[in-house]
Specification:
- With about 160 residues, the protein is mostly beta strands.
- The longest helix is centred in the middle third of the chain and has 17 residues.
- The strands form three sheets. Strands 1-12-11-9-10 form a five-stranded mixed beta sheet, with no helix packed on it. Strands 8-6-3-2-13 form a five-stranded antiparallel beta sheet, with helices on one face. Strands 5-4-7 form a three-stranded mixed beta sheet, with no helix packed on it.
- The radius of gyration is 14 Å and the shape is globular.
- The chain is about 10% helix and about 40% strand.
- It has one helix and 13 strands, in the order E-E-E-E-E-E-H-E-E-E-E-E-E-E.
- It has one domain.
């Protein structure tokens, strides 16, 4: 049984924090400004998430390594610079099993491996690999606060 830990990590808007698991990674970036993310739902609704400068964009991928990290960086760029919309799939949609990465945005994000990827319009929960599941991530001024055990992480500059 692991002991829960709370860790504060400094993160600026021009950096990305990679939380690295054995079978997946999470990329976290600060929005750096007030912005909106648009979410299309199966009910043909559009949800707008209003984000503030210290809020987070989190991208979860179900693989690791250079290609996974390039994908994470690309998705963060599309969301931050182009306000690319997020699409939510209906529950039990067959495409959910084929998703290689999923996104959540906001001031609090909970990682969970027991949810169906891509089917949650709520932006406080994100599908993640098993060894990152259970982490609670909170946006704080100048960084993030993570409740849970982190075995491997890295911060690097986010290409603009």
């Amino acid at each position: 049984m692991s002991v829960r830990e709370r860790q504060r990590i400094g993160l600026s808007p021009d950096e990305i924090l990679f939380l690295i698991g054995k079978s997946g990674e999470i990329g976290l970036a600060k929005t750096g400004r007030d912005m909106q993310i648009f979410i299309g739902t199966p009910e043909k609704e559009e949800i707008v998430v209003f984000l503030e400068k210290d809020d987070l964009i989190a991208v979860s991928t179900f693989s690791t390594g250079n290609i996974a990290e390039k994908g994470i960086k690309s998705m963060i760029f599309l969301l931050k610079e182009f306000s690319s919309p997020i699409i939510v799939l209906p529950e039990n949609h067959p495409t959910s099993k084929r998703l290689k990465m999923v996104v959540a945005c906001g001031d609090h994000i909970r990682l969970d491996c027991n949810i169906q990827a891509g089917t949650h319009p709520e932006q406080d929960i994100l599908c993640a690999c098993q060894d990152l599941s259970g982490l609670d991530i909170n946006a704080v001024q100048d960084g993030v606060e993570i409740d849970g055990v982190i075995n491997d992480f890295r911060i690097e500059k986010l290409d603009q």
